[in-house]
Predict the 3D structure of the following.
Amino acid sequence: MSALRPRRSCLYMPGANAKALDKARGLPADTLIFDLEDAVAPEAKADARAAIVATMAAGGYGKREIIIRANALSTSWGHDDVKAAAQAKPDGVLFPKIDGPADIEAADKALRDAGAPEDTAIWAMIETPKAILSIGEIARCAERTRLTTFVMGTNDLAKDMRAAQTPDRRAFLAALSLTVIAGRAYGVTLIDGVYNDIQNTEGFEAICRQGLALGFDGKTLIHPSQLDACNAIFAPTADEVTWSRNVIAAFADPANAGKGVLKVDGKMTELLHLEMAKRTVAVADAIEGMS
């Protein structure tokens, strides 16, 4: 099930850096985001497109999901980026500066016009105040377009809000939670924003745990050194998997047929816990399948 595909770690890789794109083949990232936007200078956009198309044709990325981040369609580069992505055939294209449903519809049309395969997903950057105010309607686009995933752009959101990025992200908790609520309402995968202080491992781990607690499926990263901690935090723990398997087994026991509430490992367990347990096991199995 694509909804349960591991997306614990989504690492940005600069599209203009051929060495980085090559190195990515050996990194333990669930998802690689080949960036044509912020990480590429205007004069290098065309070369970066060509480099990504070439590296995708060469392959070697195994089971890693590949996403290409395009420039906004309103820029002079956006549509050329989408055409290159259609040729490269990634798993999806990440569109920045999404303000409302019309931007998702435009992204969907751009992919169709470029001849992108039907299974090329739309990933949407949620990074503007207008996006937060329209987040429910944006998420609803998943019902009629290729939209599958939200990626928080907390740096851009901080700039537009004129808000400080404090360790507890207090200024952004409303935006983060509203995005999670909208995403869950319409089955959209949720990826938290980047953490800028590469050297601060404790701060990074704390932000990962906060993102997990808020309901995010994974996190975007800016450096390979962040991968191991991110993967560990966004994966179910061994205890969670064991308990989940016990819940599934208990409800499958013929002796418990028709029961809506059971005691499992000393805890009262309802059918809603069974649903959660099945998802936990499916995620754990999917992670195991990545190796």
About this structure: Residues 44 and 183 are 34 Å apart (CA to CA). Residues 238-290 form one domain. The longest helix spans residues 271-290.
